[in-house]
Design goal:
CATH superfamily of the largest domain: Type I PLP-dependent aspartate aminotransferase-like (Major domain)
CATH topology of the largest domain: Aspartate Aminotransferase, domain 2
Number of domains: 2
CATH class of the largest domain: Alpha Beta
Order of helices and strands: HEEHHHEHEHEHEHEHEEHHHHEHEEEH
Structural class: alpha/beta
Bound molecules: pyridoxal-5'-phosphate
Shape: globular
Number of helices: 15
Strand order of the largest sheet: 3-9-8-7-6-4-5
Largest sheet: 7 strands, mixed
CATH architecture of the largest domain: 3-Layer(aba) Sandwich
Distance between the termini: 47 Å
Length: 391
Amino acid sequence: MNTTLTEQVGSELAELHEARTYKRFLTLSSAQGPVVEMAGRGEVIVLSSNNYLGLAAHPEVVRAGIEGLERYGAGTASVRFICGTFEPHHELERALADLSGTEAALTYVSCWNANEAVIPTLTDASTVIFTDALNHASIIDAVRLSRPASKVIYPHSDMVALRDALAAAPGDARKLILTDGVFSMEGDLARLPEIAELAREHDAVVIVDDSHGVGVLGETGRGTVEHYGLLGEIDVITGTLGKALGGAAGGYVASSEEVCDLLSQRSRPQLFSNALPPTVACSALRAVELMLEQPELLSSLRDSSRLFREMLVEAGYAPLEGEAAIIPIIVGETAEAMALSERLLDEGVFVTGFGYPVVPEGAARIRVQMSAALEPEHLERAIEAFRRVKT
Ligand SMILES: Cc1ncc(COP(=O)(O)O)c(C=O)c1O
């Protein structure tokens, strides 16, 4: 081992510890749910997972995964065009296209990969990319991997800035507007109707990453696009299977037949990386079906989100406003957010703190997330803990 590297890495780690921003991996010995068994802590209430619909350990989701494993084995053992695609991949892709209101969908092993697939593939030498300043890291990295003629990072949800930037772009450029549907650290929604309108005016393409919107927003859980009545009008939607839709892993691009076809031919994470494991394809498919069959999951998530916001305000906190299931509470400095998260954990409530560089300096926060699996008694116990730790 190169000792210089070891020393350099050691001092970088020491800086993280010193700044109290070192992230610990807390070990769980039970399935993801409203409460989990955490090593050294016992039972804790989970207010920090993306298990929005509570399907991660749903018996039917688990059973579908087991059946997939028994029938198809562990995986494709190669990339799809080399070694074959399993039936559940096609079934899941059909279901995801229907869910998204698009002609087709293509799966990847993560939404990170899906973003890194679609953005560079749709970027040509003429392309100008317009990307919201608060977009997810996977979009930021995907833009770095693309080679556009130029890029514009517009201030968060600033439609005037976006309009001016679109107007200033060369008329013959391909224009890609990239936005999260629900912004993961703020919990607010993209101004999609205005974005879609600007795109129409300037002949631009809209790509929405709706990882935190699908399974949360819209009358039937189809996400931010459904929430705004825009199903069928957004060019490309990307999403994850690692949150509301089963919580395992995996992502997808939903778009036209042509875009998905081109991705199958050109996108590097599809051509040079293994397919989604069939276990995940089967369990995610069951999760999509359950969401559509059991609308009470969505209403329970929404009721809990509304109720817990109110409880937090009553307890003296000032959560950011929003319609999604993400409830951030800004506390200021990173160390304060970490300390609050630790005090809550001491009280048996698991809520993660986020600081710089994940969020801007001075805007460190804890991020509360709701789940349909949380019962009123969990919310009551959790708010008692919030009251106790309030300084
Ligand atoms: C908006 C957004 N996009 C993409 C991702 C990445 O999803 P995955 O875990 O499927 O790679 C996340 C996960 O945190 C996310 O919040």
